[in-house]
Q: What sequence folds into this?
């Protein structure tokens, strides 16, 4: 009975791992039919006796679940957009360029979810259930600004009507609950703001884990240089003759280079000169970075001065100076870094890493300088606010005393001012939000313009001026552009960083980004296909996948810091936004706990925030970290030991066979008589169970030409000295990978064989 | 998902979904690609499993394969008769192994078969020479070819028998960072 159950389970497992087996389709279909018939027959039998109905029910539910899962997977794949587009780009430009577009698509998905969160939980409730425009001071445009409120120039600057709309922080009301459903808007605003970071973190880490699995172990890079070049350099995705030509050329060049490398010894001629040049180059780069940081600081300070002057006297350039300068720096500095890096003479892959690192430092420095300058502005506004607050209070007291002295009553009706006329404080959060939105918009503009001019115009000129130009524009300078993968990916990552930072102050920013990514996809696909040529020099960009994810993670943390800082330390404006009137923004959480949740939860939280409880918890986490670290070190050591063991076994076999070769002349003669002169196949580490041999000999042969099976069997009989392994030749499916049902190891790979994905359906 | 199609029976489609990495829609799309190669040879009704084989010339002219230097070997490895003439089963099998979702081990197994030009289950020097020449379109000199093949044999041959067995090959390939992304055809 038990045996039967086990067999049924095995058959079921076989069905799920069927697609991983390297068999012919016919054989697979046949196996599937057999296994399914078996399961059908015996599952019924197993259900006899008590609990039959329950068992049958369970079986039916399992079947329905499988069917549902399959339908869901089908549906999910049908929903993935732009598959054809990416395939086209891939076949023309290879997998590394396509990886950018796949990254873009993934970002689009992420932003769509963030937008859904922000829109559904913050914007919609305020629009549907909050007070309408014009009812309270914070929602109304102040009277002096009302004439120019709908001007296009003001709107493009995100002032006027834009400023006092749902797009920015200042619009939201601070009532604890709104509408019929008692929706707690301020709480929701805070939680969504933090939740955006939490969700992004979760998604990025999940992606990194998935990528890490595919990477294989990172060691042994130089060991298999030629083998990898030979077996993995051709990109099977290429479907275009021009790209294929390029690929052939680059493979040939790469082989030639490796041959040259191999032939010449490592001569480090004049290492001192090289070191000096490298130090010099780094010095230049540091100067550039410092210079750009200072420039941004200077420009932001100037923009603060400009803010004091009347807006009409400023030119467009002066108004948008900050964003313009930042985007310009982002455009000019990377090529500058590349030129300086030529002094260093690194290997291209190392040079690429340095370049990426420097561009990252540039963007980071710029962003943080911008932030610091912004914080100065915020503090200034807070000071300003204090004085306005005092002014309002004095004005109110005055009105009160006047009224009561005039009418001689103490029952003073509240001051009735039109919302548009009320004295407004400078809402620093909205100002910050506007800055971020302007930055994003100018970034978008610069990117699109660069593509238009740098790629399209250039291709246009090269194509049409070529007819009447002295030298061949297409082959020499400037020729068509190549798609700059790393520049674009970094741009995308930093754009996302800005979104993360600004989303808390400008809920509309995420929606803007979704639109941007959508249009970017179509625009860049078109630009790449019509204006770019495939790379001449193909270098490995594959392991960089996790590198970019790591960058994204770093940017996520760095953009989390300012937001958390403002939530914890800065006090919100007194008359705008959902947290107005409170001392700190996070107080809303405590208010909710006190007022809305039952008393005992409040007690729980008070106990939980007790330092006496937090310190042991932190200690426990540190201990867990230490333990996991030690565990991973132990695994690494075990891994190394196993590898060494494998190497020793191989060496032994080598020695044994070498010895056997020289001594056993009879065996040698016998070998010569065999059809293919093939020696015994190398033995395997694990002993596959006997059923494998039978399966191997029974299965329909893959190549009718090879008499391998017969040869294998013959060899076993004759050369029993050396081959202790009673298995057939390679035609059987490789043992450890989803072998016969009896094999307990089933889908697990052999030791040290890298992480295959034998078992469950890989879509999960 | 509820669309009525009469090419395959529901059972067949389910069986194909179990045996490949494709969803229902993709299988139908692959069938239409297969049929487009030779509409007069391929019937529209596969419920009775007609025995139809497309000759290699048609397979080799597909846009996904026509620029691949190894297209003939790929077709030979995945075809039942070993000549490159493929039935629909072979066709599905081929693209399933070459798809994104196939695991590394499975791909390594078939890659080994593809690079083994003489079908003796070992990659010998001659196979390496042929692979290299196909990769570089005969642009390297004799000396260079010899040097590269020697280096490869030195790097990968663990048991020192002068040729690469499946284990040797897998040991090398499974560590290669780009293997999964290059040994992949999107269709």
A:
């Amino acid at each position: 009975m038990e045996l039967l159950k086990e067999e049924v389970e095995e058959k079921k497992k076989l069905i799920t791992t069927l697609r991983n087996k390297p068999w012919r389709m016919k054989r697979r279909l046949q196996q599937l039919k057999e296994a399914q018939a078996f399961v059908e027959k015996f599952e019924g039998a197993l259900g006899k006796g008590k609990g039959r109905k329950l068992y049958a029910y369970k079986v039916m539910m399992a079947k329905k679940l499988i069917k549902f899962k399959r339908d869901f997977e089908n549906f999910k794949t049908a929903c993935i957009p732009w598959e054809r587009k990416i395939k086209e780009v891939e076949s023309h430009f290879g997998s590394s360029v396509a990886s950018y577009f796949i990254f873009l698509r993934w970002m689009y998905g992420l932003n769509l979810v963030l937008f859904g969160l922000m829109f559904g939980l913050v914007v919609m409730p305020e629009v549907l259930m909050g007070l309408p425009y014009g009812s309270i001071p914070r929602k109304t445009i102040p009277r002096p600004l009302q004439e120019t409120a709908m001007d296009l120039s003001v709107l493009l600057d995100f002032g006027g009507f834009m400023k006092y709309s749902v797009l920015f922080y200042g619009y939201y009301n601070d009532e604890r609950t709104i509408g019929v459903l008692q929706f707690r808007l301020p709480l929701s605003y805070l939680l969504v703001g933090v939740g955006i970071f939490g969700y992004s973190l979760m998604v990025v880490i999940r992606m990194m884990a998935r990528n890490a699995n595919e990477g294989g172990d990172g060691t042994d890079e130089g060991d298999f240089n030629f083998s990898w070049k030979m077996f993995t350099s051709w990109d099977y995705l290429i479907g275009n003759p021009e790209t294929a030509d390029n690929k052939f050329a680059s493979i040939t060049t790469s082989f030639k280079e490796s041959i040259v490398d191999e032939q010449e010894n490592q001569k480090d001629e004049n290492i001192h000169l090289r070191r000096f040049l490298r130090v010099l180059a780094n010095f230049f780069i540091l100067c550039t970075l410092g210079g750009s940081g200072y420039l941004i600081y200077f420009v932001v300070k100037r923009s603060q001065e400009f803010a004091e002057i009347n807006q009409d006297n400023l030119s467009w350039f002066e108004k948008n100076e900050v964003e313009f300068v930042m985007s310009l720096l982002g455009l000019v500095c990377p090529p500058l870094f590349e030129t300086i890096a030529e002094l260093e003479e690194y290997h291209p892959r190392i040079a690429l890493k340095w370049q990426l690192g420097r561009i990252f430092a540039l963007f980071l420095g710029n962003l943080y300088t911008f932030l610091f300058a912004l914080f100065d502005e915020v503090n200034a506004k807070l000071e300003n606010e204090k004085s306005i607050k005092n002014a309002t209070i004095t004005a109110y007291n005055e009105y009160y005393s006047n009224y009561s002295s005039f009418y001689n009553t103490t029952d003073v009706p509240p001051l009735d001012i039109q919302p548009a006329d009320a004295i407004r404080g400078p809402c620093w959060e909205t100002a910050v939000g506007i800055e971020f939105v302007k930055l994003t918009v100018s970034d978008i503009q610069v990117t699109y313009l660069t593509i238009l001019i740098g790629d399209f115009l250039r291709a246009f000129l090269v194509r049409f001026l070529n007819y009447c130009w002295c030298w061949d524009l297409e082959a020499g300078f400037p020729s068509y552009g190549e798609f700059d993968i790393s520049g674009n990916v970094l741009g995308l990552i930093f754009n996302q960083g800005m979104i993360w930072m600004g989303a808390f102050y400008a809920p509309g920013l995420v929606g803007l980004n979704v639109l941007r990514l959508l249009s970017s996809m179509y625009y860049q696909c078109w630009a790449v296909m019509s204006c770019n040529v495939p790379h001449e020099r193909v270098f490995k960009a594959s392991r960089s996948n996790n590198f970019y994810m790591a960058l994204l993670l770093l940017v996520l943390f760095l953009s989390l810091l300012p937001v958390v800082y403002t939530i914890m330390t800065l006090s919100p404006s007194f008359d705008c936004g959902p947290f107005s009137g409170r001392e700190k923004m996070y107080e809303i959480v405590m208010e909710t706990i006190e007022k809305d949740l039952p008393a005992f939860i409040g007690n729980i939280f008070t106990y939980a925030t007790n330092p006496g409880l937090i310190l042991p918890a932190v200690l426990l986490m540190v201990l867990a970290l230490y333990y996991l670290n030690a565990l991973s070190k132990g695994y690494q050591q075990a891994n190394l030991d196993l590898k060494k063991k494998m190497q020793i076994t191989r060496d032994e076999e080598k020695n044994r066979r070498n010895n056997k070769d020289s001594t056993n002349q009879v065996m040698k003669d016998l070998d010569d008589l065999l059809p293919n002169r093939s020696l015994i196949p190398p033995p395997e580490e694990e002993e596959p169970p006997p059923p494998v041999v039978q399966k191997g000999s029974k299965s329909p042969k893959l190549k009718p030409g090879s008499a391998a099976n017969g040869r294998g069997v013959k060899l076993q009989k004759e050369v029993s000295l050396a081959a202790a392994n009673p298995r057939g030749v390679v035609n059987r499916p490789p043992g450890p990978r989803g072998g016969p049902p009896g094999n307990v190891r089933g889908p697990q790979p052999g030791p040290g064989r890298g992480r295959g994905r034998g078992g469950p359906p890989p879509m999960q | 998902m509820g669309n009525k199609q009469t090419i395959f029976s529901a059972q067949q489609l389910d069986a194909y979904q179990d045996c490949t990495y494709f969803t229902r829609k993709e299988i139908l799309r692959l069938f239409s690609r297969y049929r487009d190669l030779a509409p007069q040879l391929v019937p529209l009704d596969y419920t009775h499993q007609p025995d139809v084989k497309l000759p290699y010339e048609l397979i080799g002219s597909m846009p996904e394969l026509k620029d691949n230097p190894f297209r003939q070997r790929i077709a030979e490895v995945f075809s039942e008769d070993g000549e490159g003439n493929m039935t629909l089963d072979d066709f599905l099998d081929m693209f399933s192994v070459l798809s994104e979702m196939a695991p590394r081990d499975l791909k390594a197994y078939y890659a080994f078969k593809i690079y083994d030009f003489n079908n003796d289950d070992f990659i010998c020097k001659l196979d390496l020479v042929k692979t290299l020449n196909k990769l570089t379109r005969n642009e390297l000199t004799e000396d260079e070819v010899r040097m590269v093949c020697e280096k490869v044999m030195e790097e990968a041959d663990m048991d020192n028998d002068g040729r690469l067995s499946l284990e040797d090959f897998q040991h090398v390939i499974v560590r290669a960072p780009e293997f999964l992304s290059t040994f992949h055809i999107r269709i």
User: Anything to note?
Assistant: The mean pLDDT of chain B is 88.
